[in-house]
Amino acid sequence: MPISKNIKSNLERSSWIRKMFEQGAKLKQKHGQENVFDFSLGNPDLPSPQEFNQELKKQAKKTGSYLHGYMPNSGYPENREKIAEKLSKESGLHFDKNLVTMTVGAAGAMNVALKSILNPGEEVIVFTPYFVEYDFYIQNHQGKKVEVSTTDDLLPDFKELQEKISSNTRAVIINSPNNPTGRIYPKDCLQELGEILAQKSRELNRSIYLLADDPYSKIVYSDAEYRTPLKYYDNTLMIRSFSKDLSLAGERIGYLGISPKADDSEDLIKAASFTNRTLGFVNAPALMQRVIQNVLDVHVDVEKYEERKNVLYDSLTDIGYNIVEPQGTFYMFPKSPIADDIKFVNELQEELILVTPGTGFHKSGYFRISLCLPLEKIKRALPGFEKAYQNSVQ
Q1: What is the rounded average pLDDT for all residues in the chain?
Q2: What is the 3-state secondary structure (H, E, C) of 287-340?
Q3: Which CATH architecture has domain 64-292?
Q4: Average of pLDDT values for 384-389?
Q5: Domain 5-48+300-393 in CATH: superfamily?
Q6: Residue 204: in which H helix or E strand, if any?
Q7: What pLDDT was estimated at residue 30?
Q8: How far apart are CA 27 and CA 354, in angstroms?
Q9: Of 10, 236, 268, 317, which is most buried with the most CB atoms under 10 A?
């Protein structure tokens, strides 16, 4: 066999998001791109802010020795200092630059964090539904995934969490605002989560880390508020990227922030720098580091995502869909009108509408809609959503 058995197995169960993307390409070729409504892939479509564009041009014009050369594995000190200042202001904790590691996107930060803390066979808890790449990231570092359910309002089931934390638990991953649901963890939820993890850490006499994967922290709608988990649990590792708030998904720039209150923070700092190098990332892209340090308060026009969300949410609920209203991100996670979400997704494809089944996020009976397409096209898709719904409930 030319490739590893492990990779062959992973390829066979590859992401539903990618499967739908590939199906969309076929439909577009057959029916024309303008006639296919592709809600499957969360590829941010809003233009990057002008402030970013101007800063990019400014930095790209610079010349000189070592401008594009090697740097400390953790990234440029001045860049990390500015991010540390932002984290300090956001959390009320004292961050310094050593607690920040610049990474190749949030995916890079997650892999650096997991590589730094996991021993073979240790458990990482995720809440369903979740971003399915977590499966592979955990597997990359010989961890064992443990799933915990969410309630009807798509927030963690804390009773089940307490039952599933074991002497082998090393980390819990949360994602708020959440992909695929759009839910933001409220204050009482974060407080309870922090209390449970602190209590279990004391009982088991081991550090349980909270990996807060929050790349959508600035994609928050007007009636909601994002709260940083750093305020509610000491052993928090913050994972961020600029892919969503600056529409830079292809530029691969993010960071890992280690709480100054985390256990063994000095060792974690050293581990993050080492794993960033040895995982093959080496360091985050130099040009993007120089750019983003000067636009940390800038983000895309979130009102445009919110307008799309409002139109789609109001229209789909009027049709009869059951939806927990998103509070952020550019996703929506309606319940399928029938139990078999894959069957319903196929029904939508008959109307040239592409969405991702909840099964792809380990939560059957739902489907995910991405809001990354123009409002006019969303409106044109509404009759198809209604027809598929009526066909399914008859």
Answers
A1: 95
A2: HHHHHHCCCCCCCCCHHHHHHHHHHHHHHHHHHCCCCCCCCECCEECCECCCCC
A3: 3-Layer(aba) Sandwich (3.40)
A4: 98
A5: Aspartate Aminotransferase, domain 1 (3.90.1150.10)
A6: helix 187-204
A7: 81
A8: 9
A9: 236
